Amino acid sequence: MSRARVCLTVDFDGVSSWIHSFGEADSPTNLSRGLFGVDVGAPRLLDLFDDYGVETTWFVPGHTVESFPEAVEAVWAAGHDIQHHGWSHTRPGTYPDTATERADITRGIDAIEALTGRRPSGYRSPSWDFSPDTLSLLQELNFDWDSSQMGAEFCPYPLRTDWQAPADEPFDRGRETDLIEVPVSWQRDDFPAFAFDRQRGYANETAVFEMWESQFEWMYRNIDDGVYVLTMHPQIMGYGHRIERLDALVETMAAYPNVEFTTVDDVAASV
Prior knowledge:
The protein is of the alpha/beta class. Helix content is about 45%, strand content about 15%.
């Protein structure tokens, strides 16, 4: 059995998602959900990761870097990787033009570079959305990899450009680029499962954590050198009872032979 790799990833949105994606800038209650992630959730996650001595990947909007520099500095000081997640947590498909999207990505690069002293190599788009220009902008701005798409379960692959999806002609996959995709899944993301919605109510949390464990176990049995990416948000995963469940999940995965907890950057560099 080849080794299995686990990437614990954190989208440290702070309040940016409520302001820029959900249009809730005037809602103190929803903004407080983001503040919970900054003040309570993120420190709890850092403590858990420290307990296991694992290095994780935090995708941080520039808005979070500039709004809560001490909180983001704590992530960096603890030895975790900080990568790009937009500046404003705006869904790329909603930008009015290429220049606006480029400016937002560039501002996010500058914010991370000012805090860490190094340029981010990877990108995760807000809401896992691409515009028609996103890939070319990532190439232009010298990114090495992305972690936003879903063309595989547990295996990184090259992103493709020049694809075509006409309604009345066959789909054209386009050609491979040098950008590596480390794929994500809505099935391994805490936000759609646990973020409260008045229409949906609450998820069965026991079932969700059991699903995450079963997905890891299936990958371990069936995929040589598989890469398991779990996506978390401090404002969602940071509640005490979920931290306990996450602790149990990490403990279970760590008990398997030849399992490595690593960063998305290290995975992409090995492809």
